[in-house]
Amino acid sequence: MKKSAVKKSARVSAKPRSTATKPATSAAKRRSPTVSKRHPAKKTLPEQPTPSAEVVTDGRPRCHWARNDRLMCEYHDHEWGRPERDSRALWEKLILDGFQAGLSWITILRKREAFRRAYRGFDPEVVAKFTAADVKRLLNDAEIIRSRTKIEASIGSAKAYLAMQAAGEDFSKFVWSFVNDQPIQETRRAPADVPAKTPLSEKVSAELKKRGFKFVGPVIVYAWLQAVGVVNDHVVTCFCHDSNLVG
Q: Which residue of 18, 40, 126, 228 sits 20 to 30 Å from the alpha carbon of 4, by its own alpha carbon?
């Protein structure tokens, strides 16, 4: 009788141990979705600019991304889509678009003047000579995007730019040769009509990579081609669309 009582007592005492493991298991299951939320899959495309300043209310029709932020509006009205033919300026915009990768353009736009100071006016001859000390200086500059990969890529792209120049290949002529020196005039009617990349951007991207440029994938390159006016991608209802028809 005593042995039976001991066995029964052992079975009773074993139950709490088995039930104690269940809450831990279910808690682990509950925690797993939280981990995935903290580390979402990266989007292929940069996010659209987020409104962050005063709303523009002058009544003129604009592309959707320029309507809710004064700085973005000024950039849209006076720069974006305007044909750029200066080689140095084209290179600067390409580098800034590379820094935009994974970020919104408004982030870069707000930091652009800081970038220009840090990069000594985006002179390719100066940037190509940046040393490890300059990389460290840039990594410690809180006013710019502090990505070692992007910083080192920008220095390499300055060297690639100079190599083209030394070989007699003008950067502006190189860029505009893909469109026979005339901007492509698109007739997009809505944001959904604007692609992330095109056969043109894929071709330009491939040629830039051959020459040693980095952070020049077809999506980044298409954003750059739009910005420098090689492609006029203002929607047709935007007041800037027709004003950019002449290249």
A: 18
- The structure's pTM equals 0.77
At residue 214, what is the residue type?
A: K
* DSSP class per residue in 167-201: TT--HHHHHHGGGTTS-EE----SGGGS-S--HHH
Nearest to 203, CA basis, from 221, 190, 191, 186: 221
Question: Can you say whether the dihedral through the CA atoms of 182, 188, 189, 194 is positive or negative?
Answer: negative
What's the CA gap between 103 and 237, in Å, rounded? 27
Q: What is the CATH number of domain 64-243?
A: 1.10.340.30
Q: 185 forms bridges with which residues in the sheet?
A: 232
E strand or H helix at 148: helix 148-166
d(CA 5, CA 241): 91
- Quick count: other Cβ atoms within 10 Å of Cβ 102? 15
Q: pLDDT tens across 5-22, in order?
A: 444 444 444 444 444 444
